[in-house]
Amino acid sequence: DGGITQSPKYLFRKEGQNVTLSCEQNLNHDAMYWYRQDPGQGLRLIYYSQIVNDFQKGDIAEGYSVSREKKESFPLTVTSAQKNPTAFYLCASSTPPNEQFFGPGTRLTVL
Amino acid sequence: AQSVAQPEDQVNVAEGNPLTVKCTYSVSGNPYLFWYVQYPNRGLQFLLKYITGDNLVKGSYGFEAEFNKSQTSFHLKKPSALVSDSALYFCAVSANTGGFKTIFGAGTRLFVKA
After folding, report:
1. Is B73 in contact with B93 (CB distance < 8 Å)?
2. Partner residue facing B106 (CB), from A41, A97, A98
3. Residue A23 β-bridge partners
4. B45-83, pLDDT tens digit by residue?
5. What is the phi-psi region of residue A71: left when phi exceeds 0, alpha when psi lies from -120 to 50, beta otherwise?
6. B101 CB near a chain A CB, below 8 Å?
7. Of A8, A31, B30, B40, which one has the greatest count of Cβ atoms within 10 A?
């Protein structure tokens, strides 16, 4: 069953903690993306990767970090430097220029 | 720089009536245009795309969109709305400049009333 998965579905973070969101795809897509969605707003690009071992900052990369060691995996770390991390995080993958396939999302809440 | 505008935050339509959700864009180079739908607390689902070819594109669930180069628009349409079409709709654009980075519009919430 091909698709893109994200875990966990819900995540709670204390002030000052780093947390890592998982994203895995078995669609054999070269490109992967992380977006942040705030209530009532559109998607903002955090990081994207067009190929293994390479990634670029998106529009709101500050306070986040990523790695792309395997084609299938693109984990996102939300660091303590991100001052307002409460949001819905979406991972996606694609073979450009075609459409992106999205995971079900992770809802992160800061306690 | 690329940009996408969805001028309506919300569209209300009665079930059975036609619906239109508007989208205009700005890119350098040839545009690649997409529509996605999002249901509450879910990821986005792809509806349709324009990359090249016919200006009228047909997609999932009876939706279609028309690429209009002169007006730089890509409006989403459906001849007869269903209550189950109620959701958040996003228009997106990318181009072959800048590595196919995709820009999403702010979204339009569609309410279909029974």
Report:
1. no
2. A41
3. A6
4. 999 999 988 999 999 999 999 999 999 999 999 999 999
5. alpha
6. yes
7. A31
